Amino acid sequence: MRTIKKVLAATAAVATLVSIAACGSSSDSNANKGDADKAELVFWGWDSGNSMKDIIAKFEKANPGITVKFNNTGTAEKTSTALSNAIAAGNGAPDVVMLEDPTVTQFAVTDGLVDLSEFGADKLADDFAAGPWNKLQYNNKPYALPIDSGPEMFFYNKAVFDRAGVDGESIKTWDDYYEAAKKIRATGSYITNLAGTSNDYQPFTAQIWQAGAQPWKVDGEKITINMTKDEGMQRYIKFVQKLIDEDLVDTKTPNWSDDWNRELNDGTIASLTIGAWMPINLMTGAPDQAGNWRVAQLPQWEEGQEVSAEDGGSALSVVKLSKNQAAAYKFVEYMTHGDGAQTMADTGTFPSLKKILTSDSFTDPTTEANKKTNNYFGGQNVNEVLSEAAQRPTEKFQYLPYNPFAQSSYGDEVSKAYTGEITLEQALENYGKKLAEQGEQQGYTVTVK
């Protein structure tokens, strides 16, 4: 196997994680499967729903020979950095790791994760929503199981839309969206914001994914970058450039900024295309708009289509260095496919497991959690709409094996199109060249089209 250059971040936090986890790993790259019923596992991840303690206790009760030590790594970025360092060092890695979906490929390509088809995970494909499942494949084999799902949705402020004379439910295509954008802009608001920062990277990948684009392809040691000539990319570029040129989108306000929340809260930004996990963020970030927001399916490029895409998501993998792979997989399966998946859904994680997505309890408008959300959305049964989106078909979409770099560098190049310095096509062409340079530095053979 070829050698990939590793980026080592020698921080105190990473060093602490590695030292804590040392008992759970081995430097032997050919570590055996171990005893599926007896092990001391180390698990790295984050705990946004404050549910890990409960889930682990229930797992250990059901599997008395296995203990799980959870190290809360805080963020996805810190987790992936720590894992890179541990793998490069050949020791100190956990048995189980939580990763953002797009980074799974990065570690699969460099042989840091276990091919879970060795444990029969490939037989579980039909049990999960297609979007998150497809993101976790490398060479058509699963290297992680999805924790959650993030189908791209169309959230809109009905009060602002009504004022502009736009029926949000009638927006079925991106052409409909463009016509609505003009009417909304005439009222002084914007249909949405697009600033081209690194925080826009995930929505960007979701939108080009839905457009059928393949801006990069990974084939072993070979990568092809095609940011502007790919048919789906051309479709996306032409549409977004039109929105920029006609001042139909707010190009000054980046996602997740204080100004972004303020403009969502005062109606300046009238809609978002973003992941299904967004309701709680609207409820906390735009409280003054309670009762006004609604959610609908993503507009389509062709009328009558029902194509979805994913924005965000996380997953669990078994680390190749682990000497407890069989027991580690048992824990991964419990968390994502077993009883643990329900506990996570009950504490706010948007599920990827079909049996939860289609369950009466998930869409029941009388549950306390659903009532709170539905009230904010004017009485709409939000989970019913989100569940439908999660089950829509998605095409397979690859991420680069150095996805963190792709995300961090996205804003450096693409933001220039939103400030008017260059066109979006020029910005994406420059971005493609930067991605190619990084790939070559990592040891890949890169072709740019």
UniProtKB/TrEMBL annotation:
Signal peptide residues on this chain, from the entry's feature table: 1-21
Q: Which intervals of the chain form a coiled coil?
A: none
Supply the alphabetized keyword list.
Signal
Claim: Signal is one of the keywords in the record: yes
Q: Which InterPro entries match?
A: Bact_solute-bd_prot1 (IPR050490), SBP (IPR006059)
Q: Read off the CDD domains from this record.
A: PBP2_TMBP_like
Q: What is this protein called?
A: ABC transporter substrate-binding protein
Q: Which organism is it from?
A: Bifidobacterium scaligerum
